[in-house]
Amino acid sequence: AFPPLWREALDDLVLAYDSTCAYWCLRIHQGTGNPTVDHFAPKSRHWDKVYEWSNYRLACQTVNGFKREFSDVLDPFLVQDGLFALDLVSLKVVPGPTSSTQLAEVKAAIARLRLDSPEYSSALEERYQPYHSGEITFAHLRKYAPFLAKEIDRQGKRLHGDGSTA
Question: Taking 70 as the threshold, does the pLDDT of residue 144 lie above it?
Answer without folding.
Answer: yes
